[in-house]
Design goal:
Number of strands: 0
Structural class: mainly alpha
Distance between the termini: 69 Å
Number of domains: 2
Order of helices and strands: HHHHHHH
Oligomer: single chain
Radius of gyration: 23 Å
Shape: elongated
Strand content: under 5%
């Protein structure tokens, strides 16, 4: 009987310790609510003012091509937030259309981005028109 009590007390202590650690990890990472319902994807759109046709076209391009890997431009880790200002329009266009060439030529920024995101095998080599690129950049601003 004494051994059974020890086993039960030990199990409860392990359970409490594990729960406490889990709660602490969730708190540190900012997780506050568990939602059992899966919310349908809604892109975060930052422009509240007049949304131009160029912006809408950029949003559609983003959802079609970019939204497969990038949830949205300002959600989660915010890694696309302010991307146009960080990279500059010209470099961003190169990165979107010729990332493999940038990597092959050992471009420092392209290599750093690829390394930061775990050297994913996929590259940005989209074949966009100038107008599509202009629209996508307008959306990302």
């Amino acid at each position: 009987m004494k051994n059974l009590k020890k086993i039960i007390i030990g199990f409860i202590l392990i359970l409490l310790t594990g729960t406490t650690i889990l709660i602490w990890i969730l708190k540190v990472n900012g997780v506050k609510i568990f939602d059992s319902e899966k919310v349908e994807y809604q892109p975060l759109v930052s422009k509240d003012a007049e949304r131009t046709s160029e912006f809408e076209n950029g949003l559609n391009i983003f959802l079609r091509d970019c939204g497969k890997c990038h949830v949205t431009k300002n959600k989660l880790h915010n890694y696309l937030g302010n991307v146009v200002n960080k990279m500059g329009e010209e470099y961003l266009i190169l990165y979107l259309t010729k990332q493999d060439s940038l990597i092959e030529n050992k471009d420092k920024l392209a290599l750093a981005i690829k390394k930061e995101w775990g050297n994913q095998p996929n590259n940005h080599n989209f074949n966009y028109s100038k107008q599509d690129l202009k629209s996508l950049i307008e959306y990302l601003k």
